[in-house]
Each structure stands twice: as structure tokens, then as C-alpha cells.
UniProtKB/TrEMBL annotation:
Primary localization: membrane
Record's keyword annotation contains Protease: no
Keywords, sorted A to Z: Cell outer membrane, Membrane, Signal, Transmembrane, Transmembrane beta strand, Transport
PANTHER family for this protein: OUTER MEMBRANE PROTEIN TOLC
Localization in the cell: Cell outer membrane
Signal peptide range: 1-29
Protein's UniProt name: TolC family protein
Superkingdom of the organism of origin: Bacteria
Pfam families: OEP
Species assigned in the record: Ohtaekwangia kribbensis
Membrane-spanning segments: none
Family classification: Belongs to the outer membrane factor (OMF) (TC 1.B.17) family.
């Protein structure tokens, strides 16, 4: 029995040393975690949806730019008419008498008699086919529309960065939660082996009348308790693995490779109270610029729009086409909104009211984000203090356990006392494990609150 307990003591001492060395700056290599983060950024469905929205915004910007270029359209009309207004032309009344005199003088019928004409104003059997090339020479509305579309692209990019930053925080948190669950299972598994061995030895001692039944009952209860805790830890590990794989867009039961954490995170000099990198503020800044351009768009009616066009076509009766039917038509048009019953003025006032609202909203959100960062920093300091306390408690528990082990070897302590020291050691290791990863999770929250994590 003594040799088995010594082996377990050696295992615990190694575990304690491994936990003790986790005290430094967060420069540890987290290669697998970074790979998982990149995988999540590439495969996450939410980011894919956001990228589609960005693609849509980019196409809208190209559309706005295309409005400045010439456009060519083809149009044709054909008319068949009968009735309607006419123009009466007395051809016969004017020329027939003269023609008759000429025929008498010449002794011929070379000059026929004419009838009065009634000309239909509506074109009958007439076509008009043309290519029209048009281009704006100056249009303030198009200029502001292009600026707004450009800013909407930037707004969507900020939205994607915001989504990525939140996803990175969630992936890190889930990763550390899973690591915490894995270590908890390891601790409970080793503890279960220890209490089962203690139960076996106490049973032998009871048969040899060298121990009372209380020690056996207590050791049996410890086996049940650790077994139940191990079962819960295993299920918690499954849940943590499934949630992490969900974030990374992998099958829920895929295995996860854990990095060895050699250092504890610490806030560096760059982690201050500034939140200017937060995408939330960036989005509000872009929204204010959009509103400024919307105000300019509302004022665009003050400036006239100038456009030009060129028509190249053919028009004639009876589908004729020759050098007489072809034509070109060039022109410049100017339009100016002189009066609209105050509609444009109300649009300007609406845009300015929205600008004032965004200014107030930005101040409020900035204060809110600073408060969040302040709270996250306090949470991190608290988690760090709890980890240091857990480490101190772990060393105390190890010392207590080793002392009780020596006394137990010498027959100066009963099993219940050794078991109590063992339970304190197990709890201290669990607390140290929890405190370690809570510190990492708190630091991930600071990275999110300060937007300090570099998104590739």
C-alpha cells in the first residue's frame, strides 16, 4: 500500500510542478488554437453570410460608378395609322386650269389633271429605329450616391470584422473550457485510482482486524463520489468538445488537439483604456459620414443636372432605308429643381436630426465600451489573484498530504486523516485547473473589449 501511495504522491508532485510553472507573460505558442481560429474564420457560416453581403455592397458600388459612364440603348417604333387629323391641300384647284391651258397649247395630254390632297398627320406605315448614347456631364446626386455606396462597403467590412472578433473570443473561450474539462477528467481519473486502491487496502486491513469498518465505508463513499464526479466531468467534456467543434464548423465529435500552456497571460503596456479600435465605434463613424453625404444628397437639388445624348438612326415610310432615311441627333439637356413645396428642406432636416442622434449614440456607446473594458480588466485581475491563491493553496495541500502520508506510514495517523488530506489535494488541483483557464478566458474577454487581437 505504501509504495502505491508513494507513486501517486510522485504523480501529484509532478502535476503541481507543471501547474506552478504557469506564471509569466502570455507569449506562449498556441499553434493549434491559432489554427482552429483560422479554420473558424474560413468555415463559419455566419461569416460566409456576411461576406455575401459585402459582395452585394461591392456590386452596388460598381453600379454607382457605372452611372457616370455612357450608356447605349436601341429603340425602334413602327406606326400604322388611319383617320385622325389631316391637312387639306388644294392641288387640283391650283394647277388643273393651268395644266389644261398647257395641254391645249401643246396639243398633248402631258399635263394630267390633279386631285385635291388630304394629308394624314398621323404617320402611316412609318418606322423609326435608333441607337441612343447618353451620358451625364454633371449630376450631384450621382456623386453623393457613389460616396454613400463606398461607405456602405466600408460599413459592411467593419461588420465582418466585428463578427470575426466576436467569433474569435467565443472560439478561445470554448477552447479553454474544453481544456479545463479535459484536465478535470484527468484529475478525477487519477483520484479514482487512488481511492479505489485505498478501498482495496482498507478492506484487506479490515479482514486482518487492523482497521475498523468506518475506514472501509468512508473509502467506499469516496469511490462513489469520485465516480459520480468523473461521470459528470466526462459529459461536460463531451459538451465542451461539441460546442467548440460547432464554432469551428466541424463534426461535433471530432477530437481537439490542445496546446501546452506554459505561461499565464498578463496585460501589457498596450492594453490601456482606449477603445478606439472597436468596430462598433468604427461603424458609427462610417454611419455619420453616410448621413453627411445623405445631407449633401438632399441639397443636390440646388445644382442643375446636365446630360448629353447622341441618336444615330433611320426613319422612313414603307421600311425604306437609304442615305435619305439615316440621321443623327445630338443634344444637351439641363434640368433644375426650382420648387418642390419644401420637400427637399424636410429631407435635409431629417438627415441633420439623424446626424445629431448618431453623435449622442457614439458618445454613449464609447462610454459603454470603456466601462466594459474596465470591468473585464478587473475580472482578469480577480482571476489572476484567484489563480495565485489556488497555487498557494495547492502547495499547502501538497505539504499537508505529504505530512499525513509520512504519519500514515509510521502508523501515527488513521486513514480518515490521510483521506481528508487527499481530498484537499484533489480539490486544490481542481481549483488550480479552474483558476488557470478562467484567467485565460478573462484575458480573451480583454482582447475582445480592447480589440487588441490582430485579425488576419
Amino acid at each position: 500500500m505504501i509504495s502505491f501511495i508513494e507513486r501517486k504522491s510522485t504523480f501529484f508532485n509532478r502535476f503541481a510542478f507543471a501547474a506552478f510553472v504557469l506564471v509569466a507573460n502570455t507569449a506562449s505558442a498556441q499553434e493549434h488554437l491559432n489554427l482552429y481560429i483560422n479554420q473558424a474564420l474560413q468555415a463559419n457560416q455566419g461569416i460566409k453570410q456576411q461576406n455575401f453581403q459585402l459582395e452585394k455592397s461591392l456590386f452596388a458600388l460598381k453600379e454607382a460608378k457605372g452611372m457616370f459612364l455612357p450608356s447605349v440603348t436601341f429603340s425602334t417604333t413602327y406606326t400604322k395609322a388611319d383617320g385622325g387629323r389631316t391637312i387639306d391641300f388644294p392641288t387640283g384647284d391650283l394647277l388643273n386650269q393651268t395644266y389644261s391651258t398647257l395641254n391645249q397649247l401643246t396639243g398633248t395630254n402631258s399635263f394630267p389633271q390633279l386631285e385635291n390632297q388630304s394629308i394624314l398627320l398621323n404617320p402611316d406605315n412609318f418606322y423609326d429605329a435608333k441607337f441612343r448614347t447618353s451620358m451625364p456631364l454633371f449630376n450631384a446626386e450621382l456623386i453623393y450616391n457613389k460616396r454613400i455606396k463606398q461607405q456602405q462597403v466600408e460599413l459592411q467590412r467593419a461588420e465582418i470584422a466585428l463578427y470575426k472578433r466576436e467569433l474569435i473570443k467565443d472560439v478561445k473561450t470554448a477552447y479553454y473550457q474544453y481544456a479545463k474539462a479535459v484536465n478535470a477528467v484527468t484529475i478525477y481519473q487519477s483520484s479514482l485510482q487512488l481511492v479505489e486502491e485505498g478501498k482495496r487496502i482498507n478492506t484487506i486491513l479490515l479482514k486482518n482486524e487492523k482497521a475498523n469498518r468506518t475506514a472501509v465505508i468512508r473509502s467506499e463513499n469516496e469511490v462513489f463520489r469520485i465516480n459520480a464526479a468523473l461521470t459528470a466531468a466526462l459529459e461536460n467534456r463531451k459538451s465542451a468538445r461539441a460546442y467548440f467543434n460547432f464554432l469551428v464548423n466541424r463534426p461535433l465529435t471530432d477530437s481537439i488537439v490542445l496546446d501546452e500552456i506554459n505561461v499565464l497571460p498578463q496585460m501589457d503596456s498596450e492594453t490601456n483604456d482606449e477603445v478606439g479600435k472597436r468596430e462598433e465605434l468604427l461603424k458609427l463613424g462610417i454611419a455619420k459620414e453616410i448621413d453627411e453625404n445623405i445631407t449633401g444628397l438632399s441639397k443636390a437639388y440646388i445644382v442643375p443636372n446636365v446630360n448629353t445624348f447622341l441618336d444615330l438612326g433611320s426613319q422612313a415610310f414603307d421600311w425604306k432605308y437609304n442615305d435619305k432615311t439615316r440621321y443623327y441627333l445630338f443634344g444637351v439637356s439641363l434640368s433644375w429643381n426650382i420648387f418642390s413645396a419644401g420637400v427637399n428642406t424636410y429631407k435635409i432636416k431629417q438627415a441633420r436630426a439623424e446626424q445629431h442622434s448618431l453623435v449622442e449614440q457614439t458618445d454613449y456607446i464609447e462610454d459603454q465600451l470603456k466601462t466594459e473594458l474596465y470591468v473585464r480588466k478587473n475580472d482578469f485581475q480577480s482571476a489572476l489573484a484567484q489563480y495565485n491563491a489556488a497555487q498557494s493553496q495547492l502547495k499547502t495541500a501538497e505539504t499537508y498530504y505529504n505530512d499525513e502520508l509520512k504519519l500514515y506510514k509510521e502508523g501515527l495517523a488513521i486513514y480518515i486523516e490521510l483521506l481528508d488530506a487527499q481530498n484537499q489535494l484533489i480539490n486544490a488541483r481542481l481549483d488550480s485547473n479552474i483558476a488557470l483557464y478562467n484567467t485565460c478566458i478573462s484575458y480573451a474577454a480583454i482582447e475582445r473589449a480592447s480589440a487588441s487581437f490582430n485579425i488576419q
